[in-house]
Design a protein that fits this description.
The complex is a heterodimer of chains A (about 200) and B (about 1000). Chain A has about 200 residues and is of the alpha+beta class. Chain A folds into two domains: about 90 residues, Probable tRNA modification gtpase trme, domain 1 (Gyrase A, domain 2), CATH 3.30.1360.120; about 80 residues, Heterotetrameric sarcosine oxidase (Alpha-Beta Plaits, 2-Layer Sandwich). Helix content of chain A is about 20%, strand content about 35%. At the A-B interface, strand 7 and helix 4 of A face strand 9, strand 41 and helix 21 of B. Chain B: It holds the Pfam family Fer2_4.
Chain lengths: ~200, ~1000
Amino acid sequence: MVERISPLGAAFRPGRHGNLTAGPGVQLAEVTPPAIVEAAAWPGQKEALARAVAGATGLALSALPNAGAVGEQATAFSIGPHRFLVTGGDDLTARLTEAVPLETGTLTDLSHGRIALRVAGPRAEWVLSKLFAIDFAAAAFPVAEGRATAHHDVLAQIQRTGPDRFDLFVFRSLARAFWESLCAASEEAGYEVVR
Amino acid sequence: MSPRRAASTGLVDRSQALRFTFDGRTYSGHPGDTLASALLANGITLVGRSFKYHRPRGIFTAGVDEPNALVTVLSGDGREPNIPATQIELYEGLEVESQNRFPSLEYDLGALGQLAGPLLSAGFYYKTFMGPVFGPLKGTRFWMICEHAIRRAAGLGRAGYEKDPARYEEMNAFCDVLVVGAGPAGLMAAEAAAKAGRRVILAEQEPKAGGSALWSGEMIGTRPAHQWAQAMAEKLAATENVRFLPRTTVWGYYDGNTLAALERVADRPSGTAKGLPRLRLWNIRAGKVVLATGSLERPVVFPGNDRPGVMLAGAAERYARQYGVLPGERIAVFTNNDGAYRAAAALRKAGAGVVAIVDVRPEISDAARALAQEAGVEPLLGHAVTGTAGKRLTRITIQRFDAATGRVSGDGRPVDVDCLAVSGGWSPTIHLASQAGGKPVWDEALHAFLPPSPMQPWVGAGAFAGAKTTVEALSTGRDAGLAAAGKKPSRARLPAVTAPALDPAPAPVLEIKAAGKAFVDLQNDVTAEDVRLAHREGFISVEHLKRYTTLGMATDQGKTSNLPGLAIMADARGLPIPEVGTTRFRPPFSPVSIGALAADRHRHFKPDRLTPMHDWHVGHGARMMEAGLWHRPMIYGQPGETVEQAYIREAAAVRRSVGICDVSTLGKIAVKGPDAAEFLDRVYTNTFSTLPIGKARYGLMLREDGIVLDDGTTWRLGAHDFLMTTTTANAGKVMQHLEYFLDAVWPHLKVHVTSVTDQWAGAAVAGPDARRVLEACVTGTGVDNVALPFMGIVHGRIAGAPVMICRLSFSGELAYEVYCGAGHGAHVWEALMDAGEPFAITPYGMEALGALRIEKGHVTGAEIDGRTTARDLYLDGMLSKKKPFIGSALMDRESLIDKNRLRLVGIVSLDGQPLGGGAHVVEKGSLDELGASIGHITAACYSPALERHIGLALVKGGKSRHGTRAFVSDPLRKRFGPVEIVSHHFYDPEGRRMHG
């Protein structure tokens, strides 16, 4: 198995940075899972797709707008009308291909095309609010839900995977530039880059 | 006699001293001071020179409304000009200098300009900036020199040239209720909304909450008002659902209840921790807004009203109570309302002498009379101040005044003073409400404009909404907070307020007409006479008045001058004020640094877009170039090589043996679904439904108007699974085009499109040895002519990584595009380099790619320029006659099939000199004499294969000119020379090499 090479390169600097007077306010990490698949349903088929994805991954996934689910081995969240971003292990694509018939929708492998960056910690909402004009408060953006948004040219699909933890999926080619923006935005709160 | 620190009053921390410099001299103040209060405490009243006349000016207000006391803040080599001294929080080491003076503030040569006073009247620029219309200087550049001098003489501070090292940030915030202003009303509103469980943001422009409570001298409950406010603010700041933002000015009210605010985060050295921005721009999306922005005092206009020492009565009171500073030792008060009496009593209590209270009214309330007694002075009713004297105020002149007729009578009585506290009543701070829409409403009793009825979901409270007392402010504040939270008004008891029962209504007098310059707008040096002049000259609408006289412009936006200006215009027109109207307030409420508006958008909106092989390119000497957001290798230069030498070497290597080029930037779109093939038949001019699985086809797309949109190859990976490639530049545009047709035109088609540009790394391996390179490293599939024919696709592995290889050629050589997962891109690239070593594989960049494609006559964005048709590019063979497609209905319009359209040809330089893209092609002419253009060159290079300078061009008639001579005409680059027009297929027109 050939290892995937991270696009962050030298911009990934493990350790503590920025204003550390109150300790690092966020932890930043690259958490790209082995497999990322976009699952898209035909009109009227989103529930069937949610069921199929749930069946293949063991997640409790609903077809409601913004819905998502977080499990041990897999996650899934809505990234737009009729679309989910599903993550999991190496066998994810095979499992989904089996579960999602052409009558329900299509699958597109994005395992190499998207990079997952994690922002976690007490200042995560604060740091992300600098970059995205969406409401990160827990009441407005509950755990497991997803949002599709953008930071200028950088499209980002975001899932809240914990009370103070967000996973951001960005295009691979823009990941390094976005990571640098993320680090810059985190300087005020202090940040720790973890492997 | 001069201002000084009061013996005991004020909320500043006297236990700590802060040193600062003003015009190079060091002074000291205390935490809690503003620069203005500290300057006054040090006896400094002259702080600036006026805009036009260079008149000495002092501190006029104590807040955001300051028109006069503008200074430049210095930090290292940086300069930030035009900051009101009243808005600078004092800190240790603060350095400021005064503005618009030469050689010094005390002795300013510019003041001689006053002698030219009559020339500098309203409309000065319009009247005089036309230059002499007769005489010897007519038509000369003389006036341009004068303009320069005049512009230098007039003005405010000057900005620096150094790079600003400060950091600026932007923040997005959402809340149920935004409360603007943390005075008594705002605090009550925030508390009520927070108690109802709403998410609240409370923004206050000053460092401390409290608003008027900081200097009113009133009691709220059992405590002094400022203590009550502080306790409230502390409680709110500790409440989980409240975000209290001090030092934050809400400056813009936009549609959708979006408000902009500016937070001064680290404008103080205490806050210079790493990463902390100096200013933070807040974009606040609020469910409801409570506007509790209070009111601003306005002056009375009278001759000599601009001397240092004249200030608003509320400001004088604030200096005494909040900052513990006496703005003078012999103070007179001049008023049209009761409020100034409270100031007189406060000043006396703080230790100043109050020598006169001059009131235009014939009668006053008992409460005012009692305060006058506290101040130790008998008010002069039915009097007005009609003049002042001194560079710094030394004397005022008082005369009898009839408020009913506005007439002054009797002899002037001089009174020696060093400070005159003036009040013309209070105007609600309605700026944000006005920005939100609607017309302000005139209130006769307050002689002021009240906010309009809300056009957006806001609720008003306190003095902003016309509350006349602190009790009213508390109750309207609480009700507004409850209303914003969707609750009913409360009947619970409010804290009691101990305050004098003053009459809130001012006399409707805002100008005293007497001899001498009486200033309406201190910042722009606009006098009452200027307003009347504008009237006489026909500029009677308030909007015209503003533009003609500059009344209400610049950094203070006329906070102290708007209403007096209106009153004077109304008087001149013989109309009541509301009929004259008021200007519509626009954002920002107070100045916002450009740095904050730009904010620290990392890389200025332009993220670097990198291919998976980026680090390899850089590590191997590539000179990178930007293509949109992408960074692509231009050349891989060797030591001592020029760009031209490098690309010629690279291109020659491709023709001779083998080269490798990173093509990961090509747009890639997954097109999937049962109707995918049908969709592609509609999108492309040629047919894709007949394409076998495992094959690729070149395709052309038109816009609906018949013009070419893009080209590229599309690969059929499965029955319902296609991989479309687009040009690098048009990837986004094509994606939008496809999504539009799927969403809006053919929603019944079952097709999904997804951008997979970043999923795949791509390497083009091109040249006669390309197959041998692949044979050396590809496993799991054959790559020979049978297994992988032209336009065939195979799947295999390179160095263990799965790859997909399509045999297609942009260079005209035997060539393959090797695609693999982007995460394996660098790994596969290096394996290809290793496999190619025996064949001297040469990485090539964009320049060589360009030369190779020009030699082949392949089109790119330079030819697909949004104006050309398929026929123009001789691609009409790709226009299917068997099916309709996007653009087919309009592509045969008369003008699109005209014989004389610009069509694609090749151009060869006949004089051995290079050709330049963008140069014109002409039939005759010379370097000096321009001939009529018959077209232009779209791309040019030195062709290593042909050993000549060649280019592609779009010329009238296209092919019909093959074999004819013309000239390249490029006057900008001083190039004129003979060319031959030839076929654009310069090299291997039969395509033997790529099919070989």
